[in-house]
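Pipeline run #58 for the internal structure catalog. This entry was flagged by the ingest filter as a single-chain record with no existing model, so it goes straight to prediction. Upstream metadata was stripped on purpose; only the residue string is passed forward. Reviewer on rotation: M.T. Logging verbosity set to normal.
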Amino acid sequence: MAESRSIYPAVFEPDRLRLYGCFILGICLFRAIALISSFDNMLDTDSSPAGYDFITFWSAGYLALLGAPEAAFVRERIVEIQQLAVPGNQSVFLWHYPPTFMLLSSAFATIPYLASYFLFIGSSFLFYVYSLKRLFDHPYAILLIVAYPAVYLTMVHGQNSLLSTGLLACAIFYFRSKPLLAGVFIGLLAFKPQLGVLIPLVLLVSQQWRVFFSAALTTSLFVGLSFAVFGWELWVVFFQNMSVVKSVMGQGLLLSEKMPSLYITLKMMGFADGFSYGAHWAMAFVVVAVLVWLWYRCGSTNMAFAALISATLLILPYLFDYEMTLLSIPIALLAMDVAQKGGAIWEKTILVCGFVTPLILAGIGQNFNIQIGFPVILALFVLAVSRAVSELRTERAS
């Protein structure tokens, strides 16, 4: 028994972590090269366009530049522009984003599609690395930050998760030293409002008033700018479109193997749509209650931030694997805490699973009809809460 225990620390020592990072990064690079080599006229072997989801962003922005932003929500119109961006494209990518994100999409639509994709992904990646490197000053930080598989997924899909992760990392970095600036970064998350829905709650219960009002003001200015550019009518169309998203999910038209939410997990297990939604929202209620209590008792600690980001992903029924990029923050915060204070093997195992899961999630779901993403995100939330409570008890005892 003693001999088996001695093996565990070696598995997580710095040199081995560097080796793991290099190995996973190598896998992602190999997959990226294989994907790029398969393209013919900007279409891969599945006839999907280069950039995947980014074609939606570019097309919506292009329609906005034409003076018809509301047409982005019309299937026929946006498909027409997508075929303009990538001739021969037969795939359909629908637009579900708020007018705040259309402001950014319009800017990128001013240049040709492929150049716009590389500019968007390249700038988002640099912002992501810069933000997290400032937050986690460690010799192996850059390697592990870049090697996290969800980063690869985000770049391949042309998604915006690198941008949202960078904004959250900056908000955490400045939270204590420059709370007004932290609020600005939080307010900019209004381009993807579902990622910020829990933040006002925790700011209120922890009485972080400067961050709260700065975030509220920034959000208001951001939304106001979208009003000025596109008009209030576009927001009405956006909210009306939410029923379309729910319908698409309910009909199973999305790739369930890439969606690590409890709702989709239960659907994959054969449960009815109504039961799956009910169970999901019941879980979300419990998670939010625990999170609010945690921030009320502990305030803005690193473990509280780790719990916040994990909880944000847990409560979303509409969630894709590339959005697990946000987990790079709680995984790193938890890893730093374990490195400083020590941790049990089960805690370290959760961190390793959290790091590797985005790489294997879709494959396991497709081949075995099992969604492993949700339990991993839940485990990270439980781990963050557990270590926060332990920290609170230690403070009380001293």
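catalog note: Residues 1-8 have pLDDT under 50 and may be disordered.
catalog note: Residues 273-298 form the longest helix (26 residues).
status: ready for reviewer M.T.
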